[in-house]
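sry for the spam today, last one i promise. struct tokens for design, 180 residues
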């Protein structure tokens, strides 16, 4: 089992079975489903399976927890890791609005970017953001991510089309948090 990654206020630790209820609850909330691109509801059983039996070996996922209380805040991870191309995709979800805007995501992103660029020695990190999720677009831009492509009307949710924005940051552009 991999070791936890410690920040000042948060810890990134491996996902645990007891986390499944948190994800099953929040990932069925309409606003979270919209912002994250989830097209169908999840179940406790599906979340347990996702935690116990990851589908791909080219992923690296962590629970985001408050270091002081151990309270689960969200998750972050790498998916579609291509070490031979020195690239990966990153994801982060902090679903509870009460936990957003408190620095948890910024700290988690810096821990993950440090892991990507220094532990894995990758050169490029990509993310995709629903265009209507302007709060997320601004967040990733503050971290230094650059918009590099738009899939026009590439996302459909609840009867509405949205662009899907592709963003990226390169190792040479990341300064360990100087963008924030």
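last one done:
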């Amino acid at each position: 089992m991999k070791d936890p990654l410690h920040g000042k206020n948060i810890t990134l630790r491996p996902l645990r079975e007891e986390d499944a209820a948190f994800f099953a609850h929040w990932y069925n909330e309409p606003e979270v489903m919209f912002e994250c691109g989830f097209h169908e509801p999840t179940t406790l059983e599906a979340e347990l399976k996702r935690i116990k039996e990851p589908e791909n070996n080219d992923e690296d996922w962590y629970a985001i927890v408050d270091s002081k209380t151990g309270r689960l805040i969200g998750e972050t991870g790498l998916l579609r890791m291509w070490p031979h191309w020195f690239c990966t995709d990153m994801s982060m979800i902090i679903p509870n609005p009460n936990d957003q805007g408190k620095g948890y995501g910024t700290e988690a992103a810096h821990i993950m970017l440090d892991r990507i660029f220094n532990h894995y020695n990758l050169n490029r990190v990509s993310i995709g953001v629903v265009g209507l999720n302007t709060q997320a677009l601004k967040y990733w831009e503050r971290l230094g991510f650059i918009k590099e492509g738009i899939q026009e009307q590439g996302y459909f949710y609840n009867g509405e089309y949205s662009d899907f924005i592709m963003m990226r940051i390169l190792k040479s552009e990341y300064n360990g948090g100087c963008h924030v």
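The chain is about 25% helix and 35% strand. ok im logging off now
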